[in-house]
From TrEMBL:
Annotated source species: Asanoa ferruginea
Pfam families, sorted: TetR_C_33, TetR_N
Domain named HTH tetR-type: residues: 30-90
Keyword Transcription regulation: yes
Molecular function, one GO term: transcription cis-regulatory region binding
Record keywords, A-Z: DNA-binding, Transcription, Transcription regulation
Protein name in UniProt: TetR family transcriptional regulator
Domain of life: Bacteria
SUPFAM superfamilies, per the entry: Homeodomain-like (SSF46689), Tetracyclin repressor-like, C-terminal domain (SSF48498)
Keyword Cytoplasm (UniProt): no
UniProt DNA-binding region: 53-72
Length: 255
């Protein structure tokens, strides 16, 4: 039977071939990489992006500054790796919310949006790193989003899939297809390259429209730009979420 033999430290792949277990050196390296990223996140939370430095991390971990370059050749590389981990964490939160919402895609969409907001409000420093003013490492991270396995793409996938299910079930109102083909289609190539060329233009538009709405409202809350207007941003969020989700129903626009 295929599996893992921990006693003999022999791994067996699904194809039945024997794979060597990670060596002690490899395990230590993996552990150190994780510790470096954890320390970078701690510095981010306590001091903001400017507090993250390879020298500061090395000092906290009891390493020499040159030694840390064996793990990350630059601060930008570390920031890019940390961003990937944060997107993976956020994706897990969103994915769990979708799974717990049942089979109704409208309920799934609402649950995922709420999960995104909850994580963002609870982790403002992390939100600012991956979705705020981009640092050089974040720019590099975003430039690689044409890979379907990129953590940023993985984060968006359950939203795209759910919006596509709603379109296939009952096409919702969108701008005229001729207008989108003329003005928007060519500019959607990066998005469609990562999510699949078979994604209809209408679905891609609805995804981006919804993301702009969701991200804009959440970012204003995270960065405290709504205090002048509303005492409870959550109440406003729920109203906006209701209005957004309502466009996907046959009775869109009705009370």
């Amino acid at each position: 039977m295929n599996g893992v033999n921990y006693g003999n430290a022999v791994l067996v792949s699904q194809g039945g071939s024997r794979l060597s277990a990670p060596t002690r050196r490899e395990r230590l390296r993996t552990s150190t990489l994780s510790e470096i990223k954890e320390e970078a996140r701690r510095l981010l939370v306590t001091g903001g992006p400017d507090a993250i430095s390879l020298r500061a991390i090395a000092r906290e971990m009891g390493m020499t500054a040159p030694a840390i370059y064996r793990y990350f050749d630059s601060l930008d590389a570390l920031i890019e790796a940390l961003a990937g981990d944060l997107y993976i964490e956020l994706s897990a939160v969103v994915g769990a919310a979708k799974a717990d919402a049942g089979d109704d895609p409208l309920e799934q969409l609402k649950a995922m949006a709420r999960a995104f907001r909850d994580w963002s409000v609870a982790h403002p420093a992390e939100f600012a790193l991956i979705l705020g003013n981009p640092l050089p490492g974040i720019v590099a991270f975003q430039e690689n989003c044409d890979d379907e396995h990129h953590p940023g793409v993985e984060f968006g996938r359950p939203f795209m899939e759910t919006i596509n299910v709603l379109w296939l079930r009952d096409p919702y109102p969108t701008p005229p297809r001729s207008l989108m083909e003329e003005r928007l289609a060519a500019h959607l190539e990066p998005l469609r390259a990562s999510h699949g060329e078979e994604v209809p233009i209408e679905v891609a538009w609805a995804f981006l429209s919804g993301w702009s709405r969701l991200y804009g409202l959440v970012s204003m809350e995270v960065f405290h730009h709504l205090r002048w207007a509303v005492s409870d941003p959550g109440a406003l969020f729920e109203m906006e979420l209701h209005a957004y989700v309502d466009q996907f129903t046959p009775h869109a626009g009705k009370a």
